[in-house]
Amino acid sequence: MATSWVNSAERIGSDLHLELTGPGGRRAALIRALREAVRSGRLAPGMRLPPYRSLAADLGVPRNTVADAYAELVAEGWLTARQGSGTRVAERAEPLRPAARVPRKAPARTRGPRHDLTQGTPDASSFPRTAWLASYRRALQQAPNEVFGPGDPAGRIELREALTEYLARARGVRTEPGRIVICSGFAHALRLLFGEGVLRGPLAVEAYGLGFHREVLAAAGVRTVPLPLDEHGARVDRLGRERAVLLTPAHQFPTGGPLHAARRAAVIDWARARGGLVLEDDYDGEFRYDRKPVGAVQGLDPERVIHIGSVSKSLSPAVRLGWMVLPERYVDAVLAVKGDREAWASVLDQLSLADFVVSGAYDRHVRRMRQRYRGRRDRLVAALAEHAPHIEATGIAAGLHAVLRLPPGTEASAVKAAAWQGIALDGLAAFRHPDTDVTAGDGLVVGYATPSEHAYGPALEALCRALPAP
Fold this sequence. Notes:
Blueprint: E1 2-6, E2 15-19, H1 25-40, H2 52-59, H3 63-76, E3 79-82, E4 86-89, E5 115-116, H4 129-142, H5 157-171, E6 180-183, H6 186-194, E7 203-206, H7 211-219, E8 224-227, E9 229-230, E10 233-234, E11 244-247, H8 261-274, E12 277-281, E13 305-310, E14 322-325, H9 328-338, H10 347-358, H11 361-387, E15 392-394, E16 401-405, H12 411-420, E17 423-424, E18 426-427, E19 443-447, H13 453-466
Parallel strand pairs: 5-17, 7-8, 7-11, 11-12, 12-13
Antiparallel strand pairs: 1-2, 3-4, 6-14, 9-10, 13-14, 15-16, 16-19, 18-19
Helix pairs in contact: 1-3, 2-3, 4-10, 5-10, 6-7, 11-13, 12-13
């Protein structure tokens, strides 16, 4: 049994909750509860307790039970009782004090890189906070009550409808809301597709790509087979007995450049002839500078291509939202893997992104960042022309990074020199598939989008100091 009573005088309006539980009957339980209240400080020294008649009535116990409990606690020294003063907590009854905190030793600080030129992340300082907050507020105010229940594993219909229109307009994707499944990013999409056997390996991949994605696939038991690359993108004519291929046709990562039109058509022909499937990673599809827009391969055959995108580069990796545009035959299988409710992508963030897209704020942000990143790229090219004219920057017509082509045999020393200059970046070899027998040469992968505006100039100066001499 448990109840609470209101203290008098010294603690007017303050409730004390007594738990009368445990062995020994109500008298023993009341004694334990009062002792614990004193120990914890809920009953402070000098505090007056209610008359035993009142407390007995509040607790629903006989008056003698409360009177006996008071008497025992007085005898033990927990309480004092004086004629005309009532029963009080003894002044010497010290409450339990929090244990003294042992000062935590601060971890040793290791000096990190002064300049971050790693690829794959946008300028974090450029996140559109004001516009995003406006979308979040509108989404929250207009959200129906069912939004705050278990989410649809396919994703909010508002976001899927917004993406249907946007992807058709901006990327040439042909779909409908029922074929879009929301996920938390590209790696999550791979786990959903391969982790539970919706798709099975082996999977052909580009000879250079993100090692993290290969690790995700390997963890799902998928063997990846590298495809050679040249100036026109992946050599899809080298596809063998694989039934699926993963490509970055909008902007090959990390070497740069779109998949040639003839090869885009050829990979669709291959998929149709073999009953195969193309997984399209729409990497950097929205950031182009010196070339005409390149539409999604999915538009050539929506039943042979899974188009995968996210906002990790266009907005921020902190907004954990992505999407899969699926052939009809895979929708139910992917939803079965996701389960009965949305467990990864915040429903409120989905609604915010939907409003962000529909209101036009997303287009405005992409246009603004496209101009900013183009300016960053131009500054990189100008710095190289002035300080290292023997170094060529390639893959710069689109995307958020450039590959600086180095003299043969100098990549490892250049990466080390960059580290000495306090620069974080990667060598091209870091992205090479371990099973490929071809090489894209020596190079540095420089992410020019990552630094903030004020940090970019010093980063370029340090980079030029780290480059090998002619």
